[in-house]
Design goal:
Blueprint (H helix, E strand, L loop, with lengths): L4 E11 L9 E7 L17 E4 H9 L7 E5 L8 H13 L3 E6 L11 E4 L17 E6 L14 E5 L6 H14 L5 E2 L3 H5 L3
Parallel strand pairs: 2-4, 4-5, 5-6, 6-7, 7-8, 8-9
Antiparallel strand pairs: 1-2, 1-3
The structure holds iron/sulfur cluster.
């Protein structure tokens, strides 16, 4: 019989530092592994522990009680068995949580999330991911790279790539770009890094 294990890199409580939900208390479940290999990736997810859905939900329940959101992130969470992922989402919802998915948009899912953040990387958002269910698009860019919009009616955030040598330059570029295109773009900084939290 197949077990309902997922490879968990870390589970922790913090505040959402990016996008529409910036500032809101959130529990994070970071799953291991990704299907793309971005040069600027700042997330090391190879370490993991296999945990059952029940163990994950128990761990989340032990975190800060005054928190209504769980963010499923990675890596790329959707590379994992979606039957097990859906079971996890159902169990978390039964505890009263709303669920945000952070995905690179390369994998189709039918799972019902409360908030979907797509951060497109080397590929486009996949055909089959319902545009009406995408809450926001977060585009990472560096100085000089013109960002592309992916969906006509969905909030698009421009986020500077946090590379040590070009951080300030990238922030200035994104700030100026957003200032010049205020109807199409909002600025997203990784506020958790500025706040000094995880
Ligand atoms: S999609 Fe995200 S997690 Fe995957 S390699 Fe790129 S930045 Fe890292």
């Amino acid at each position: 019989m197949r077990g309902d294990f997922l490879p968990v890199n870390e589970i922790f409580h913090s505040r959402q530092g990016e996008g529409v939900r910036t500032g809101e208390k959130s529990h994070f479940i970071r799953l291991s592994g990704c299907n793309v290999d971005c040069w600027f990736c700042d997330t090391e997810t190879s370490d993991h522990k296999l945990m059952t859905v029940r163990e994950i939900v128990c761990r989340v329940s032990e975190l800060e009680p005054e928190c209504g959101w769980v963010v499923l992130t990675g890596g790329e969470p959707l590379i994992h068995d979606q039957v097990i992922l859906e079971k996890l989402i159902i169990e978390l919802r039964s505890k009263g949580y709303r669920i945000q998915l952070e995905t690179n948009g390369t994998i189709v899912t039918e799972i019902d999330f409360d908030h979907i953040t797509v951060s497109p990387k080397r590929k486009n958002i996949v055909t089959g991911l319902d545009p009406n269910k995408i809450s926001e698009v977060k585009v990472l860019t560096k100085s000089g790279d013109m960002p592309k919009r992916y969906l006509p009616n969905t909030p698009h955030f421009l986020q500077p790539i946090d590379s040590p040598d070009e951080r300030d330059e990238n922030i200035r570029f994104c700030e100026k770009f957003v200032s010049n295109n205020p109807k199409q773009w909002k600025l997203s900084l990784q506020m958790h890094k500025i706040w000094g939290i995880k």
